[in-house]
């Protein structure tokens, strides 16, 4: 798996899906729709703009292993996580989507975006597994940072992390279950149930249309990433 090409494909894919929830209306834009051009400041793969610096000190970068396969994969996984985090924090989820803007909902939506990438990485053999491991490490490291921001006593951080991981793993199992059905209609129905349970935390305030929109979005993200030719 070529990680640099993987990153280019994920971050520069044209906007293939125009709608979520209503015809001719963009509801959410996800990983597969993020365009990293100079006009888009939403999210970018980190790069050094000073090309002369890169050229002059390339020998040093090589010496410290910057271009090693494992280093490239690690940077790719970190960038993928940043995209997943960005996707999970989109305002549309918490406005039109009606999702409660709290720690748990944000965490589940970030995890859902990581899940969409994970579903593709499992197809990429040993390289995919390596990137996937770093991707989930980034997720949990970020989670610990977010937990610490609430100023809990340090001795309780791991306890809170385990609690978060418990409901995140529950969401992942439900998403996997929904994606396993053979027909699109069945997948959508099961994903709607998973979304209501985990994204909306069983809230009765979420409408059927909102659950369907988020479910369709997540399945679309997974499908788009599955269909991408990352080596092209």
Automatic annotation (TrEMBL):
InterPro entries: Ubiq_cyt_c_chap, Ubiqinol_cyt_c_chaperone_CPB3
Segments forming domain Ubiquinol-cytochrome c chaperone: 98-229
Transmembrane segments: none
Biological processes, Gene Ontology terms: mitochondrial respiratory chain complex III assembly
GO cellular component, one term: mitochondrion
Pfam family of the protein (one): Ubiq_cyt_C_chap
Family membership noted in the UniProt record: Belongs to the CBP3 family.
Protein name per the record: Ubiquinol-cytochrome c chaperone domain-containing protein
Organism: Heterosigma akashiwo
């Amino acid at each position: 798996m070529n990680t640099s090409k993987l990153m280019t494909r994920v971050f520069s894919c044209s906007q293939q899906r125009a709608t979520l929830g209503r015809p001719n209306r963009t509801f959410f834009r996800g990983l597969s729709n993020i365009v990293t051009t100079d006009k888009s400041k939403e999210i970018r793969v980190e790069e050094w703009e000073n090309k002369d610096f890169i050229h002059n000190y390339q020998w040093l970068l090589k010496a410290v292993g910057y271009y090693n396969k494992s280093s490239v994969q690690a940077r790719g996984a970190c960038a993928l996580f940043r995209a997943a985090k960005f996707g999970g924090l989109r305002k549309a989820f918490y406005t039109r989507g009606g999702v409660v803007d709290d720690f748990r909902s944000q965490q589940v939506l970030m995890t859902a975006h990581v899940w969409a990438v994970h579903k593709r990485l499992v197809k990429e053999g040993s390289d995919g597994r390596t990137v996937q491991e770093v991707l989930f490490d980034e997720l949990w490291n970020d989670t610990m940072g977010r937990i610490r921001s609430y100023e809990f006593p340090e001795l309780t951080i791991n306890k809170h992390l385990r609690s978060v991981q418990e409901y995140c793993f529950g969401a992942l199992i439900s998403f996997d279950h929904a994606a396993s059905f053979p027909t699109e209609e069945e997948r959508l129905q099961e994903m709607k149930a998973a979304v209501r349970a985990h994204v909306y935390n069983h809230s009765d305030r979420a409408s059927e249309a909102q659950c369907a929109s988020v479910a369709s979005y997540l399945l679309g993200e997974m499908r788009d990433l599955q269909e991408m030719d990352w080596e092209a």
